[in-house]
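Q: Could you fold this chain for me?
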Amino acid sequence: DDIAAAAGRARNASDVLDEQDLSGLSSALDAARQKLLEIDEQAAATARSVRDALLQERGDQAAIEASRFAEQQQQLKDQLKAAEAARSTAAEAELRQALRDAEEIHRLKSRKIDEQAKQQAARDAETAERQRQQAQQAQQSQQGSGRPSGGGPTFNVSLAGTGVSLRNVPQGGNEDALAKIAAAKRAAR
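A: Sure. Below is the predicted structure, expressed as structure tokens.
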């Protein structure tokens, strides 16, 4: 915009400049304008590339496809504008068909991505259910093994010379454990 304003001021000052100076100035302004367009295009391409890399790392296939399609669609629309400006009906027809084809490709890819995401979600749900069942089985197995449900440390007791042994007796000065030992000792006599 600043370049365009400068060009306008330069052209208004043409009574001071001769034709050769004005032509050189106009060429320099056109070159500067072209250079700015190239910089803008490079910056946009770099930003798209970085954004696509980020989406790829996140594994967001739907967003990657949407970005790819938007870029392709914009390129085709820009080419269509140029073909319309040049009044090239053959190019216009080809580009309109290319736009329709690009939309169909996008729909197919999006559908495939959705199906893959649903399949992955189902696999993840199956894995979570298997893990839940395994944890539940392990808990039931632990409870069914005769270990106290309190989960505290236990010990085994063999009363020498009696042939009596107790398994999984809770530790920690538990009076119940002492009572079990005393009862086993009396029973052995």
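A (continued): The mean pLDDT is 81.
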